[in-house]
Each structure stands twice: as C-alpha cells, then as structure tokens.
Design a protein that fits this description.
Layout lengths: L9 E5 L4 H12 L4 E5 L3 H17 L6 E4 L7 H14 L5 E4 L14 H29 L6 E6 L14 H21 L4 E8 L8 H7 L2 H4 L9 H12 L10 E4 L9
Helix pairs in contact: 1-2, 1-8, 3-4, 4-5
The protein binds NADP nicotinamide-adenine-dinucleotide phosphate.
C-alpha cells in the first residue's frame, strides 16, 4: 500500500488563506502535518483561515497540529523579510514550502499599463524568488538524503500556452518565469537535498479565476478533455504526491493538473 502523507512535517504556504493555497493547507492539515504556517496580506483572512484549519485538524484526528497565521504583503521586500524573521522565531526548520501567493491582471495591450505588468511580475516572480531565498536555510535544516525538503511553486498551464485572449501579459510571463526558476533550482538544490517542483493548475474556480471562468461561459468545460474544471481534490492529490516521502525521487517537474486542457483547443 502506498500511503501519501506529510506526517510530522512543518509546512509553509503563502496565499494560504483562500483558493488553491487554502486547498493545500487543508490537505496537509488533514494528512498529518505537525505545523502549518499560512500567510497572506489581510490579518482577518489569516485569522479566519487559521480557525478553519484548526477545526479541520481536530476533525481529521490530527490533534497535535499547530496552525500559525502571519500576515505579510510579499510584494514588499521588507515585509517578505519580516515574515521569514517571524517564521524563524516560531520554527527551527521547514520541510515543505508552497510558494502559492499570486495575482493577475488582464487588459488589451493598448490599455495595459507597464505598472500593471510590473506589479504582477513583482508578486508572481520576484516575491517567489525572494521567499525561496529566505526559506532555503530553514529547508536545508530539515533536508535529508532519503526524504528531501520540498519547494512547490504554484505556476499555471498558461505558462505553456500562447492563446492569451484577455491580455494577461505580465501573468503569462510571470508563470513561465517561475516554472523556469523551479527547473533551474531543482538542479542546483538537489545536492542540498531540496526538491523543487511546479504545479501547473488548469482553471479552478477561485476569487482570482472566477471572472475569467464566468466570461468564458461553458467554453472551458466543453473544451476540457475531462469535461470539467479543476476541483479541490485534484490539487490536493498532486500536492501530497509531490510532498510525501514516497515522492522523494520526483524533482524538477512541471506537473499539469488540468484534465488535459493544455492539449486541447481552448
Ligand atoms: N485558480 C486558478 O484557476 C489558477 C490556475 C493556475 C494557477 N493559479 C495560481 O494559483 C495561485 C493561487 O491562486 P488562486 O486562484 O487561489 O487565487 P486567490 O483566490 O486570489 O488567492 C490568492 C491568495 O494569495 C494572497 N495574496 C494576494 N496578493 C498577495 C500579496 N501581495 N502578498 C501575500 N499574499 C497575497 C491572497 O490573500 P490576501 O488577499 O489576503 O493577500 C490569497 O490568499 C496563484 O499563484 C495563481 O496564479 C490559479
């Protein structure tokens, strides 16, 4: 029997207060994590998600699970540094880091301001780079040859596509960039026993994606080979596969979780 779990792991998830980040937090809380640290900008969202995850941990029988919520705007360099300072005061190592926080912007080229591109790239790429840089000493402390520490980058299938009907120039570029960063670091970090993989979700209903999903109508489900959008369990299965001890030989992959949508005409 293969039992994918994250028992006794210390996990950090940025953007862990809603959407895909919260799905990841729920998955690790329900599958044995010892400490789960979530972060996002809004203090109230952090507190609400913490209370929800604590309840979920109890329900799953993971009574020793500690949930820590620390607000921070990762697009601000000093706040990113402050987040990792606070994390270091709470834990002495990290087993798993899910770099998930992200944002998007779409507009036709003529109306698409350079400032909007910079803002998206700053959060989706620069802040991912910065937070990985700051997380690395903590990840190294948990790393072993048999069970390396894990970095999971939340990229997107859109990083592979070129039919940008809504003008998400910065977003597409940022996702291609983080996937590249993941493959680059996978090679560099392997000798230090840190695996780096990217998850490339298709379309999942979340605050970020709902506008686009509504605007697309039935198109996204009709053109998806599996005939539906992504669901919570789809993402959670991928995360646990990449983060469990059994997945320790998986390194440097772009794991598409999209029902095959990237291969079909959207
Ligand atoms: N949903 C999809 O279909 C889809 C598909 C492919 C990839 N993705 C990727 O998955 C990730 C999560 O997206 P989602 O759909 O779950 O979006 P979402 O529902 O909008 O959640 C984004 C999360 O990031 C946090 N966040 C936003 N800006 C931040 C900042 N400057 N600093 C720190 N935290 C910040 C948000 O909380 P606060 O507002 O409190 O900061 C929230 O917790 C993103 O990287 C996205 O690109 C999503």
């Amino acid at each position: 029997m293969v039992d994918f779990n994250v028992e006794n792991k210390i996990v950090l998830i940025t953007g862990g207060t809603r959407g895909l980040g919260l799905y990841c937090a729920e998955a690790v809380v329900e599958n044995g994590a010892k400490t789960v640290i979530i972060s996002s900008r809004k203090p109230k969202a952090c507190e609400d998600a913490k209370a929800h995850l604590e309840q979920l941990a109890k329900k799953a029988g993971n009574n020793k699970c500690e949930v820590i919520a620390i607000p921070a705007d990762l697009s601000v360099e000093e706040q990113c540094e402050d987040l990792f300072k606070k994390i270091s005061e709470k834990v002495d190592k990290l087993d798993i880091f899910v770099a998930n926080a992200g944002a998007t912007w779409g507009a036709p080229l003529e109306d698409h301001k350079v400032s909007a591109v910079k803002k998206v790239i700053n959060l989706n790429f620069v802040a991912v780079y910065h937070s990985i840089q700051l997380a690395t000493p903590l990840l190294e402390r948990a790393a072993t040859q048999e069970d390396p520490s894990r970095i999971i980058i939340m990229s997107s299938i859109i990083s592979l596509l070129h039919n940008d009907s809504v003008g998400t120039y910065g977003y597409l570029g940022s996702k291609a960039a983080v996937s590249h960063l993941g493959r680059n670091l996978a090679v560099q970090f392997a000798p230090r026993h840190i695996n780096v993989n990217s998850i490339l979700p298709g379309f999942f209903p979340t605050k970020m994606a709902n506008g686009l999903i509504e605007a697309a109508g039935d198109m996204l489900t009709e053109t998806n080979p599996r005939g539906r959008l992504g669901e919570k369990g789809d993402l959670q299965a991928a995360l646990l596969f990449l983060c469990s001890k059994q997945g320790n030989y998986i390194n440097g992959v772009d794991l598409c979780v999209d029902g095959g949508a990237r291969l079909a005409k959207m």
